[in-house]
UniProtKB/TrEMBL annotation:
Lineage: Eukaryota, Metazoa, Ecdysozoa, Arthropoda, Hexapoda
Biological source species: Helicoverpa armigera
InterPro entries: Cyt_P450 (IPR001128), Cyt_P450_E_grp-I (IPR002401), Cyt_P450_sf (IPR036396), Cytochrome_P450_Monoox (IPR050196)
Protein name: Cytochrome P450
Keyword Signal on entry: no
Protein localization: Endoplasmic reticulum membrane; Microsome membrane
Gene: HaOG200036
Molecular function (Gene Ontology), one example: heme binding
Length: 523
């Protein structure tokens, strides 16, 4: 170790001296020298990262790390490869006392699957690490990525916009979109397996867009398509940047095609959202509606944009940029997660006809066998359906991990982790932990109806994240999913085969293809 430190120190001193030594009397530096200096610096860095002293009591290191790049090279490849790799890391973590170390470049990442340690990290490390800030010029001020001091104030301001009373006013919109989905799927019924994701994504996006922006947009609208494509591409580019460490440096990223593409797509989102905000302001001003907002009943849909404009108007707390980035974050965080959750639910109930039948019977009972719209009173009564949703999200949490950082050391059960590291809590791993019992890998919705079959702490169901910085849209998501499922189940029998399920991961995990879902008309 001492030898290592000495070698590194000598190399660094030599490299620095060669780079900075006065050259007035010497000939101009030629490219050969420059290359040799740079190579020397790289070797020094490599040696440093190789010999860098690890604390005596460090968690086990995931196998295969290399100097300079750490484990970065293992993440390269397509989205299937990425998920296979992540799953292997999680399995290694579960087998090694639920805490391991990895390196991205020379930066330490600690992967956790221990329930108590995960909760400690979730509650005490509220700051998001640098990888989240790759999204800064799109979502920077939004709740998901913003700095913790801003987050604390803004989360308090926005929490009321997601309370049950407000969300109940969205049920009419959830129904409208669910009915549209049912009719657009009619052509697939009885025609064998098909990919359902392309139906679900624009449908849920329309719901999210309308409840957030309030504009009358339908799912075939050109704006919505452009918005969806831009959001999709942005999420893909963020993941690409995370995987390839040379793209981490902002000045290099700016020069790449990906960097330019990112800026282009960010501008598209910005232009769409800014114009929606400006139009809405004009409309509301003309109708003098901001004043009437507080009197609004649960029946009328008051979009989140109006609530934010109201906050800006009355309390002068949010400016237009804040509002824009909050809205884009909410739509971005809402639609793909919810559509992916729905896809997994359909695959699972399509593979378990008995469970699907129980859901259908419960639904018919709640609706008194009537062919009527779902309302806000029906949703809480769909208890078995909620168990199915939770059990699906336990086995396949669409966002399979979250990351945090802290500028102070973090004390866990068996280790104290150094400040400024990145902590990755694997929600997928947490949900496959032995605390769920010997049947942890099986799909058993009934476990949610029997507290004895659940972990003692209900927070260990973490599909919507853990601790204080959890998902603000949890209830929104569950209500939208329940409404959509209610309409689908009443019209169709779903068939699928879980054995064929293969996963891939960009930011979310999702089926490689939804080709194995088929529908049979119930009427
Ligand atoms: C099944 C659906 C959903 C799942 C599985 C889900 C999951 C999550 C997870 C795991 C996080 C933490 C992410 C992180 O820290 O990296 C999160 C945060 C967030 N989600 Fe969701 N989400 C869902 C639906 C929604 C919906 C419908 C909305 C909005 C309408 C939403 C808005 C947000 C926002 C704004 C955050 C950031 C919260 C903060 O930091 O204060 N999500 N979600």
């Amino acid at each position: 170790m001492v030898l290592g430190v000495l070698i590194v120190a000598c190399c660094v001193v030599f490299a620095v001296w060669r780079l900075v030594k006065p050259r007035s009397a010497s000939p101009p530096m030629n490219s050969e020298k420059l290359v040799s200096d740079l190579s020397l610096s790289c070797i020094a860095l490599a040696l440093w990262s190789w010999f860098k002293p690890r604390s005596v009591k460090s968690p086990p290191m995931y196998p295969g790390w290399l100097p300079l790049i750490g484990h970065g090279y293992q993440l390269m490849g397509d989205e299937r490869h990425f998920w296979k790799r992540e799953k292997r890391v999680v399995e290694f973590c579960l087998q090694n006392n639920d805490l391991i170390e990895m390196r991205l470049g020379s930066h330490s990442l600690f992967v956790l699957t221990d329930p108590e340690d995960s909760l400690t990290v979730a509650n005490n490390c509220l700051e998001k690490p640098y990888i989240y800030h790759y999204a800064d010029n799109v979502y920077g001020r939004g709740l998901l990525t913003t700095k913790v001091d801003i987050w604390k104030t803004h989360r308090k301001l926005l929490n009321p916009a997601f309370n049950p009373h407000v969300l109940q006013s969205f049920v009419g919109e959830y129904c409208r979109q669910a009915k549209r989905l049912v009719s657009s799927l009619a052509s697939e019924a009885g025609n064998g397996p098909f990919d359902i994701q392309p139906y679900l994504v624009p449908n849920v996006l329309t719901t999210a867009y309308r409840t957030t922006f309030g504009t009358k947009v339908d799912e075939n609208s050109e704006t919505l398509k452009i918005y969806e494509e831009a959001t999709d591409k942005i999420l893909m580019l963020i993941l690409e940047r995370t995987k390839y460490i040379w793209l981490h440096l902002p000045f290099i990223y700016k020069l790449t095609t990906s960097g330019r593409e990112f800026d282009k797509r960010a501008k598209i989102l910005k232009d769409i959202t800014e114009s929606v905000i400006a139009n809405r302001k004009l409309q509301l001003k003309a109708a003098n509606q901001l004043d009437k907002l507080e009197e609004s009943t649960t029946e009328g849909l008051v979009p989140l944009l109006d609530r934010m404009l109201d906050l800006a108007d009355k309390q002068n707390v949010l400016n237009d940029d804040d509002i824009k980035e909050h809205l884009d974050t909410i739509v971005g965080a809402a639609y793909d997660t919810t559509a992916t959750a729905l896809t997994f639910i359909l695959i699972l109930i399509g593979s378990h006809p008995d469970i699907q039948e129980k859901m259908y019977q419960e639904l018919q009972k709640v609706l008194d066998d009537e062919d009527r719209d779902i309302n806000k009173h029906d949703l809480p009564q769909l208890v078995y359906m909620e168990a199915v949703i939770k059990e699906t999200l336990r086995l396949y949490p669409p966002a399979p991990r979250f990351a945090r950082t802290s500028n102070i050391d973090v004390k866990l059960k068996n280790y104290t982790l150094p400040a400024n590291s990145t902590y990755i809590v694997s929600l997928y791993g947490l949900h496959r932990h032995v605390m769920w019992g010997p049947d942890k890998d099986q799909f058993i919705p009934e476990r949610w109806l029997d507290p004895a079959r659940l972990p003692k702490n209900p927070n260990f169901f973490a599909a919507f994240c853990l601790g204080r910085r959890n998902c603000i849209g949890r209830l929104y998501g569950i209500m939208a999913i329940k409404t959509t499922l209610s309409y689908l189940l009443r019209h169709y029998r779903i068939l699928s085969d879980i054995e064929q399920l293969e996963l891939q991961c960009n930011v979310l995990i999702r089926p490689v293809s939804g080709h194995f879902i088929s529908l049979e008309s119930r009427v």
